[in-house]
Amino acid sequence: MSDRGGNDNDMTDGDESAGETGGIRRSRLLDYAEMGEAGPPAAPVDASEPLTSDDAVARRRHEFAVLLGEFRRTAVLVPTDEDDEPLVGDFGGIRWIYAFSNESALARFAIARGEGGREWPYQRLLGARLLDAAVPAVGVPCGVALDVGTEGEGVLFPPVTGIVPEDAAVDAGANVDAAMEVRG
């Protein structure tokens, strides 16, 4: 991997010898994937208090708002293609920009794709810059997929109001139409 922000992080081992791989160098991506990082601790839950569905929804919305705020303030790794454009995938009619919280998560993604042996160039960008500038620049419905390939850790930031700018939100027109009906 190489950080286009000036740091060159070659993710292949510098040892040219064949070793146990039969002539193929072991990728340092494997080392990053094996390191694994513990995620943030789960929020404590008081099991003695039953939650109503409204309480559960409110709590989940609050947890997502906290997560979104943290993502917006954090620099993430965005792998790039040969044209130095963010690596994306299309699913469900939405284009998703891949972003990773650390090199271990990026390495797991690369290995899951069967591409752990090649160099993965990336840029470090603030989550806010991805959501506020990169998503609208794509020109089609687009969100951010964080830590794809890391089981149980991935998060999707879809192109909806409150996450991306209104002009890039797929639900923005629906909100305007609904407001007009109420006023009408």
Q: What is the end-to-end distance?
A: 56 Å
Tally the beta strands. Answer: 7
Order of helices and strands: EHHEEEHEHEEH
Classification by helices and strands: alpha/beta
* Average of per-residue pLDDT values: 77
Summary keywords:
184 residues, four-stranded mixed β-sheet, 5 helices, 7 strands, 17% strand
Q: Can you describe this structure?
A:
It is globular, with a radius of gyration of 20 Å. It has helices at residues 28-35, 53-73, 103-112, 127-138, 172-183; strands spanning 2-3, 75-79, 88-91, 94-99, 121-126, 142-146, 155-157. It is built from five helices and seven strands, in the order E-H-H-E-E-E-H-E-H-E-E-H. 25% of the residues are buried. Strands 3-4-6-7 form a four-stranded mixed beta sheet, covered by helices on one side. The protein has 184 residues and is α/β, with parallel strands linked by helices.
Structure in a nutshell:
The protein has 184 residues and is α/β, with parallel strands linked by helices. It has helices at residues 28-35, 53-73, 103-112, 127-138, 172-183, and strands at residues 2-3, 75-79, 88-91, 94-99, 121-126, 142-146, 155-157.
SSE map:
Layout: E1 2-3, H1 28-35, H2 53-73, E2 75-79, E3 88-91, E4 94-99, H3 103-112, E5 121-126, H4 127-138, E6 142-146, E7 155-157, H5 172-183
Parallel strand pairs: 1-5, 4-6
Antiparallel strand pairs: 2-5, 3-4, 6-7
